[in-house]
Amino acid sequence: MNQPILRIQNQAYAHTLATYLTSQGYRAQAHQLNKGEYEVSVASDSDLTEVKNICETFLKEPGHPRYQQAAWQSGEQVKMSFGKGNTLGTMLNNARYAPFTAVILVLCSLIYSLSWVGLFPQFYYTLTMQPLPQLLESGQWWRLIGPVFLHFSALHFIFNMLWWAMLGAQIERRLGFFALFMVFVVSAMVSNVAQALVSGPNFGGLSGVVYAVLGFVWWLGWLRPQWGLGLPRSIVGFMLIWLVIGYTDLLWVEMANTAHLAGLICGCALAALLAIGARRKPV
Known about the structure:
This protein is mainly alpha-helical and 283 residues long. It folds into two domains: 2-62, Alpha-Beta Plaits (2-Layer Sandwich); 88-277, Rhomboid-like (Rhomboid-like fold), CATH 1.20.1540. Helices cover 66% and strands 7% of the residues. The chain has a three-stranded antiparallel beta sheet, covered by helices on one side.
């Protein structure tokens, strides 16, 4: 049984506090009570005096690096434990708090699975980009997003799904459905159009969006650490090195490098716009 300890009118702060309490050995969780109000609770056997002291300190300086570090460590644990011992119940519970992340994951998985039983040509000709003059003439605007659902190999598919599940869920849980939806739609269109202009319409994959959510989380962790988003430098460095390697033509596959770069720039730009335009809300 959980003991309520604090109500906050800020979703990001509530989840950040719960993450920090968990990192300190207290079984804490945050959930929404009603529109605009969130409750943080801990297990009833916790030392409530110490927990309240932690909460009071947090309310004085919610942007302190110690809380961001706890969020980073939590993100690393999610990445490392992904696919290890996850039960159906755990996966469904995760989907409950990150429904848009789950929907995209299911759609990509369904299309990839059906492609293996002979339906890839149908998906390809329905979802792939068209040359822009042809697209303007046909009016099939879904093709601006369609290529993100196409994957050409198991490695391509798994790589994108793992990063999307981790980063997309982090954005959706902290900032809500609409924030992730906008990042997905805008970055999908920007990266697909950019790739089509450079190399033509024959490409696919969620990689452009993956680089967008990477850039979005990375820059918000830097610009607004109090929002509870962030990535370890090692992960950012790995993804940037992978981006550069794609341009060297040393890999055994042809990569949609322009989509990756355009997605990364788009995600960083969206994060900057959100951070600059955000108004302070009462804690």
